[in-house]
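Agenda item 2: flavin-adenine dinucleotide complex prediction
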Amino acid sequence: MRTQVGIVGGGPAGLLLSHLLHLEGIASVVLERRSREDLETTVRAGVLEYGTAELLKEVGVGERMEREGSVHHGIELRFDGLGHRIDFADLTDGLSITIYGQQEVVKDLIRTRLETGGQILFDSEAESVHDLDTDSPKVRFLADGEEEEISCDYVAGCDGFLGVCRPAVPERARTEYTRTYPFGWFGILVEGPPSTKELIYTLHDRGFALVSTRSPEIQRLYFQCDPHDDTEEWSDARIWDELSARLATRDGWELTDGKIFQKDIVQMRSFVCEPMQYGRLFLAGDAAHIVPPTGAKGMNLAVADVRVLARALIEFYGSGDTELLDAYSETCLRRVWRAQRFSWWMTSMLHRFDRSDPFQLKVQQAELDYVTSSRAAATTIAENYVGAALG
Ligand SMILES: Cc1cc2nc3c(=O)[nH]c(=O)nc-3n(C[C@H](O)[C@H](O)[C@H](O)COP(=O)(O)OP(=O)(O)OC[C@H]3O[C@@H](n4cnc5c(N)ncnc54)[C@H](O)[C@@H]3O)c2cc1C
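Presented output:
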């Protein structure tokens, strides 16, 4: 099998790249180890930066998002029993975020690619990538128990944190930067109405909590937990008690509960691999970097990477010029590190690192007091959250 760009991974990064290339007449094949149904039903991210939502509209995959997504103009930061609104619209000249589940973005991209003759090979697991420093790299994969090979001009490694592409870069040619946090997020999916119009991020003596949403019927809530906790040990009643305690306000705000239908624990990690390219392999999205979800940047960074990569490939196929491809890693890493900084900072400000350290809690509360009372400081949150300050 031969194509121009071999794409490993059919998450948001791989699917969007395939679509952007198709719009300019560049052929690609997407290899995805999971089934279509599995991809379309896995609930992960849900906050789209302003630029991400605009891009999806511009390239013709935003129609359902515009109809079913929810545009938010702010978030609430809650601490010491009081809520404080960060008004994005006011602080960033009218910018906003869109709440629309990653699985819905993935559904829209899959449908659009298949309707336009795109090749997505589901249930096809890439085993290895080869000849990256030649002009004909190859991807070997398993489909229906048979080993097959795609030969291409370029390989896009969009296969997430545990994929095969990043490890294919020789160790001497990459540097990895990692930070693992001493806590995780306990996440629940709830069938029921929302408790609030906008997302609430809370710092409490007992730890962080977040009230988020996926749709008017499905709510997403998280609270800081031990990363080694077992979801089985958390009954529904215990989860609601914990969330209610952390979210309580002086004026008696009440959390709306509902039917919990999924519980999971996410380890919190920051990770960057530099550079994001080696020979004819380009890494994009979680394959190259991971952020703790506190800044809602994971999927947005994946989209930003493939936007840069698509532009560079389009330039190459149009003129033979490799300048943008050569600069791919450097171009992406500026945004990646800015998003890392923001995600790390939000995580540091909003979580309890050591519950026996009341001094640290007081300093964190003072920082929250500052960012919610100074217009300059509130603007830094707003412009980073909507994505305008990331380059
Ligand atoms: C539980 C959870 C909750 C999250 N919540 C948020 C959030 O609230 N906000 C936020 O911004 N981000 C969140 N994230 C992060 C966000 O979901 C990711 O950043 C985003 O999915 C990155 O997209 P991607 O396409 O780079 O990688 P992925 O979505 O991981 O896609 C990679 C794809 O490659 C496939 N693959 C892997 N190996 C192979 C192989 N060998 N062969 C073929 N296919 C392969 C995988 O099956 C997968 O479909 C969350 C992540 C998790 C795990």
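Discussion summary: Residues 328-350 form the longest helix (23 residues).
Owner for follow-up: CH.
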